[in-house]
Amino acid sequence: MPKICLAVDIGASSGRHIAGWLEDGELKTEELYRFPNGVTEKDGHLTWDIDALLGHVKAGIAIAKEKYPRIESLSIDTWGVDYVLLRGDEEVRPCYAYRDGRTEAVISQVHEKIAFSELYRRTGIQFQPFNTIYQLYADKLAGRLAGATDFLMIPEYLMYKLCGVKAHEYTNATTTGMVSAGTGEFDPAVIEALDLPRRLFRPLQQPGEVIGEYEGVRVVLCATHDTGSAVEGIPMEEDAPYISSGTWSLLGVKTQKPITDAASELANFSNEGGVGYNRYQKNIMGMWLVNRLRSELCPDKPWGEITAEAEESRFEETVDANTPCFLAPESMKAAFDAALSEKPQSVGDYFRCAYRSLALSYRDAIRELQRSTGRHYDSLYIVGGGAKNAFLNRLTEEATGKKVTALPIEATAIGNLKIQMNVK
User: Fold this and answer.
1) What are the structural domains, with CATH classification, of the chain?
2) What integer pLDDT is reported at residue 238 of this predicted model?
3) Which of 66, 209, 241, 405 could hold 253 in an S-S bridge, CB 3.0 to 4.6 Å?
């Protein structure tokens, strides 16, 4: 009987439990459970239903164990930056979602205490209004840190609820904007500048560490930030840039060390933890744009019809896909209308505009990446849900001039599984 591992991969819109094992040296996978996810509005704020997430995690594990009674290990990955505060074993509720606007009022206050240029030099993390550092400072001002004993990133929180062990995994911790690019640990100077409780910031643990057990199954830290696992799951033939294409498009390349110079800060590139390497990458708004347009304009129309209409459209104007107005608009259609001088006349026009805008964002980011690394790349790998979109892949190839290799695989789950399988 081969060694069977279980990857629980949770994105902003859905989650999945995928079993994996080696057969004749090849990784085989089987999806066993899939469940919905999404933000909920509570008292005017966007939040995550962490109880529902935990319920789905346990339900999927039960189904997996019913089919494969001897699962050796499991691990959980999710999006980055979000966390659960704890007072001992009690959650400080609600669990805010990164698209919530609560950080807007505190960003300038954080930068008064430690300038962003200094933050970037120390951590190498790009500015995003939802970075954990701003969320924690908002919690401090709201009194939510009073008596708090821990903050656990979402996947570490879920694993804690399974095995009772509180862990801080390195790749996910780097998304907080509070980990030193030099030491790979939480930066005490940043914590001190913001007067945050030191007790919240435990030593970091690396992917591949066994932290506990749940119903006879070892609980292992994968690269718990989903992009960290996704990059591990890309079968690259050469060292090339990648796009992990989902709700967000994460475009980057592996580097030996963080690149924290002024040009990288200006280009808003991030240096996030990888499994033995640095991920020099940039957040681009991603499939969020088209997913929201679809839910508003044509929720029942299949994606094949949507992309066919986009291909037939001759609408030529584009938008800057990274403009903050697209982050969490009440109406994505209205956000596009406001950003364009000419109003689209059809569904196809909106989607053509969105896809072309994404492709141009990829082009610009790759140009910046090549300048910063001093290297020229001929290839580009695309994984994740967005890799299934042949029209966007073609636009990306035309815009970037790179050979696009689209791999519509569950790269995140594969990377999660690979890390588990290397555990002795």
Assistant:
1) 4-226+413-421 (3.30.420.40), 235-408 (3.30.420.40)
2) 82
3) 241
